[in-house]
């Protein structure tokens, strides 16, 4: 009887030990920032965003030049004009300044929206590739190892090379 209890306890411990071993999750990490930056789509997207930013910058510079020219002209003619005319000119210059500020804010909002519209499909493609590679390798959790990505230690398998291969980069 004692021997039967000993064998039963040994079997239970063996089964429990193998269950704990099998219950451990496979974990890996990847630096998604490096992955996205390596994707050819990202280079094209960045080029498109830079071109749009340059267009807005040019328009802003032109608006500032026009404001500066008008302000200098009005300043030089201020002595020859009536107080009423000078007040109108001050209001006109202030209106131009307000228009420039409004344009600048709108341009920044447009750039942010365009950035989201352009980058979202690239990020989705990267995420799908990461999931495909992780599932193929039986990995249950993948942590983002991007600096500041919220991971303290990344000693697991790095999927960057495998996901780049999946994407053909």
Structure description:
- This protein has one domain.
- Helix content is 76%, strand content 6%.
- It is built from five helices and three strands; from the N terminus they run αβαααββα.
- Helix 3 (40-77) runs antiparallel to helix 4 (83-136) and helix 4 packs across helix 5 (160-167).
- It is rod-shaped.
- Large-scale geometry: rod-shaped
- Helix/strand-derived category reads mainly alpha
Q: Sheet with the most strands?
A: 3 strands, parallel
Tally of discrete structural domains:
1
Fraction in helix = over 70%
Main sheet: which strands, in order across?
Answer: 2-1-3
Mean pLDDT, to the nearest integer, reads 84
Order of helices and strands: HEHHHEEH
Radius of gyration: 32 Å
What's the total number of strands? 3
The proportion of residues in beta strands is 5-15%
- Number of H- or I-type helical stretches: 5
Distance between the termini: 66 Å
Low-confidence stretches: none
């Amino acid at each position: 009887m004692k021997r039967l209890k000993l064998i039963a306890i040994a079997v239970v411990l063996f089964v429990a030990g193998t269950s704990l071993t099998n219950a451990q999750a496979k974990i890996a990490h990847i630096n998604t920032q490096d992955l996205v930056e390596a994707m050819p789509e990202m280079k094209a997207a960045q080029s498109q965003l830079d071109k749009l930013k340059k267009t807005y910058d040019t328009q802003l510079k032109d608006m500032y030049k026009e404001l500066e020219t008008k302000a200098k002209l009005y300043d030089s003619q201020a002595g020859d004009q009536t107080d009423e005319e000078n007040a109108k000119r001050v209001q006109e210059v202030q209106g131009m300044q307000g228009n420039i500020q409004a344009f600048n804010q709108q341009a920044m909002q447009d750039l942010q929206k365009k950035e989201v519209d352009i980058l979202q499909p690239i990020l989705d493609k990267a995420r799908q590739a990461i999931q495909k590679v992780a599932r193929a390798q039986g990995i249950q959790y993948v942590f983002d190892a991007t600096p500041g990505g919220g991971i303290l230690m990344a000693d697991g398998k790095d999927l960057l090379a495998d996901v780049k291969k999946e994407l053909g980069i």
